[in-house]
Amino acid sequence: MLFRSAKLLVLEVDGQVVGGVGMYAYKCFYNDVLRVQEIFWWVDPEYRNTRDSIKLFNKVEEWAQEIGADEVMVSSTVLNADKIERFYTKKGFRKMDINYIRSLNHA
């Protein structure tokens, strides 16, 4: 059975949207594992590392568990890479891949 589902979570503080995460759940074609993968993730800089941003992160895992997912996959940029890696590994994540980007500089 092919499984697909998506969820959008919004972080609102005092009536202001300060973050959000979009997720997609799918069966991996190579091992039939149900994975929840982040599509996008953003929290305004002044709200990062706050109790509210941690609650948002925990909601991702809660939703994954609710739908019976086997894995959760998140991504990170190189900004604060060491700090982000410590956070994810503390939560039980392992590094899976590295991404590369090239500017097309349309001048």
Would you give an account of this structure?
The chain is α+β, with helices and mostly antiparallel strands and 107 residues long. Helices cover 24% and strands 33% of the residues. The protein is built from two helices and four strands; from the N terminus they run E-E-E-H-E-H. A four-stranded mixed sheet has the order 1-2-3-4, with helices on one face. It is globular, with a radius of gyration of 15 Å. The model has no long low-confidence stretch (mean pLDDT 86).
Distance between the termini: 47 Å
Got a strand count?
4
Low-confidence stretches: none
Structural class: alpha+beta
Shape: globular
Helicity, in percent?
A: 10-25%
Quick synopsis:
By secondary structure, this protein is of the alpha+beta class.
Tell me the layout of helices and strands.
Elements: E1 4-13, E2 16-27, E3 34-43, H1 51-66, E4 71-73, H2 81-90
Keywords:
globular, 33% strand, alpha+beta, 24% helix
